[in-house]
Every structure is written in C-alpha cells, then in structure tokens.
Design a protein that fits this description.
ATP binding; 21 strands; 346 residues; binds adenosine-5'-triphosphate; OB fold (Dihydrolipoamide Acetyltransferase, E2P); five-stranded antiparallel sheet; transport; six-stranded mixed sheet; Transp-assoc_OB_typ2; single chain; alpha+beta
C-alpha cells in the first residue's frame, strides 16, 4: 500500500491559486523530498497533507485512508502524522523524557515510559533523558523532536526544513543519522528543503517544484542524469548550454567538437538542440595552441572551478588539476549520457 497519494491537488490562499494540479505518490518506508526555491509552495503542500489547509480540489490518501476529497476534510489530529519543524518546537521547561512523553500521555504510564525509552534509544539519546533542551546541541534537540514524533507511531512523518538551523559542519552527518533512524523505524516521510545537497543526501525520491507545480518526480540520480526541463537541470547543479547538431544516435557536434553519448539519445539526425554540460564533464589540458583562455579560477579544495573563454562563450569547468588565469587550454567533453533540450524559441 502507498504511504501517501496526492492526486490533482489544488490549493489557494484568499482566492489566489498557490498549488496547481499536484500529483505524487510515496511508497511505504520511502522518503520524499519536496525541493524548490523560496515561495514555490513546498510548505503549503506540507500543510495540505497535514490537514492544516483546506484543498480547493483534489484528493489525498494516507496509508490507504482518504483524508481529503471533495466535501471531506479529516482534521489534522486524526491523520496520524508526526511533524518536525526547523526550530525543533521542544518545550524548554520540560526534560527530554517529558518532551517525548508529551505526545503519548493518553497511554498507561508504564507504556509511555517503555515507548519513550525505545525511541530515545533509537535516536541515541537515552543518556540525556533528564537534560533540558538548552543543555543539548541543535542536532541533539532535533533528534529529540524526531523521538517525540516517533513515539506517537505516526503513519507519516512531515519535516519542514529540519536541518536549516544546524551548523553546516555537522549537517550532513545529522542528515545521515536521521535518515537511518527513519529507515530503522520503518516510517515514510515527506521533507521540505530548498537545498539540493540535503535533498540528495536524505531522499529516496525527489519532487522538484516551480511556482506551485511539480515539474519532475524521480530518484535523485534520475533527476540529475535525466532532467526533463532546463529548470530541473539548473536547479540540481547548473552547467553550460551550447548548440548541438545530431550526427547519429551516439554523437553530436558542438562548438567544443564532437561529443559522445554513452547511451543512445533517440533524437533526430541533423536536428539542432541545446546540449547541457555539467562543469565536471569538461576536461582541460594545458596547450599553448589551445582554443580557450582561463578567465578565472576558484579553488575548492579537492577540485577547482575554472572559467574558460572560448569564442564568445565562457565555460564553467570543474577539474582536479590546477590552472591559472590567462593560461591557454584545450577543452574536451568526456563521454556521458547526453542531456539535450529542444532549442528555446526566441
Ligand atoms: N497564509 C498565507 N496567505 C497568503 N499567501 C500565502 C500564505 N502562506 C504562503 N503564502 C504564499 O504562498 C506561496 C507559497 O508559499 P510557501 O510557504 O508554500 O513557499 P515555500 O516553497 O515553502 O517557501 P520557503 O522555502 O520560503 O519557505 C508564496 O507566494 C507565499 O507568499
């Protein structure tokens, strides 16, 4: 059974349409990330799933149970949803244990304690059960919030920018930890972020949103390797666009020469497209007789961003070797699965 089915959902605020015709399905035990820039409607969709916002039309099903359809709206407290916010939302005057027990206080006392102990073990915080939130780091507080939500045994967990208050040094470690916790607990989750790095690290499935619509849904690598639109390609990494004319199923001609595809691209011969090339797919070789000139270098540690001027265009390249500005270089494109878009109409 699917953990969540969103079908043709429309939402509006004060008569103004915010979400239009959104559809996405989340399987059991899967983590879905809603990814998009500020104001695209991520939080609005999360609120609609939680039941905090009525739908204009469409249907939402959680764990096989319809929670929204025409003329029906199940209240938030009956949806068996756990919510995690970026500010943790812990009660400052309560210990970790009391915070966790808070959501399950209708259970018999003994069961409350057993369940709280289990979830605190799961998030590795048993030894901190008597501490207060201010005596914990941001990452530990977020793990308490996760424990509190899990104690309630939700059918679905919703996480709204859960890592944005966490120091970037420890963020990726916490993301990996929380992903493991959710997987161990067997809980399906939807999480919202505007960061592609967080989305790649946390999600099984990504839905990229733009101006209230879902533009593409798929696994992180599917979307990265095969973006359906320029918007998705740019949002997931950015790169260089250049004209390309198809030679055959595996080759195109570009201003950087012939580029080889590792898989058949199924585009028509002799037709012109725009090829999208990521910075790490271009290799550079120092060559005094080369066609490109390095215009800028950004040192990134393990690699460098190197900007190269060739003809009228500046190319962004990411390479392991060191180059200096004004150096003359040759550019070549490594064989890869090509990304070709129809030419944009002027
Ligand atoms: N209560 C509200 N009343 C009217 N408009 C709203 C309300 N809440 C949000 N909006 C509008 O709805 C749109 C989507 O907002 P939403 O909060 O869903 O975006 P978001 O993708 O989560 O952005 P962010 O990453 O900045 O949190 C925005 O244009 C916003 O201004």
């Amino acid at each position: 059974m699917s953990a969540l089915v969103i079908s043709n959902v429309h939402c509006s605020y004060n008569g103004l349409d915010i979400l239009s015709d959104m559809s996405v399905t989340l399987e059991d035990n899967e983590i879905l990330c809603l990814l998009g820039s500020s104001g695209c409607g991520k939080t609005t969709l999360l609120k609609a799933i939680a039941g905090l916002l009525p739908l204009k039309s469409g249907e939402i099903t959680i764990n096989g149970k319809v929670v929204n359809k025409t003329g029906f709206h199940l209240p938030p407290e009956q949806r068996k949803i756990g919510m995690i916010f970026q500010d943790y939302a812990l009660f400052p005057h309560m210990t970790v244990m009391d915070n966790v027990v808070f959501g399950i206080d209708e259970l018999p006392k003994k069961e409350q304690q057993t369940r709280a102990q289990q979830v605190l073990d799961l998030v590795n915080l048993s030894e901190f059960s008597e501490r207060y939130p201010h005596q914990l780091s941001g990452g530990q507080q977020q793990r308490v919030a996760i424990a509190r939500a899990l104690a309630y045994q939700p059918d679905l967990m919703l996480l709204d920018e859960p890592f944005s208050n966490i120091d970037s040094q420890v963020r990726l470690k916490l993301i990996a930890e929380i992903r493991q916790i959710l997987k161990k607990a067997g809980v399906s989750a939807v999480f919202v972020t505007h960061s592609k790095e967080e989305a790649f690290a946390f999600a099984d499935k990504l839905a990229v949103l733009d101006q209230g619509s879902i533009v593409q849904v798929g696994t992180p690598d599917e979307l990265y390797l095969r973006p359906a639109t320029r918007f998705v390609a740019d949002f997931l990494g950015g790169g260089n666009y250049l004209p390309a004319t198809v030679i055959d199923e595996h080759h195109v001609n570009t201003p950087l020469g012939r580029v080889c595809s590792t898989v058949a691209h199924h585009k028509s011969d002799a037709t012109s497209y725009d090829i999208f090339i990521r910075p790490q797919q271009i290799s550079l070789t120092a060559n005094d007789a080369g066609a490109g000139v390095v215009s800028d270098v950004q040192f990134l540690g393990a690699s460098s961003k190197v900007y190269v001027k060739l003809a009228q265009q500046e190319f962004e390249c990411q390479v392991a070797q060191h180059f200096t500005t004004q150096q003359v270089v040759d550019l070549a494109v490594e064989p890869h699965e090509l990304i070709l878009f129809d030419k944009q109409s002027a």
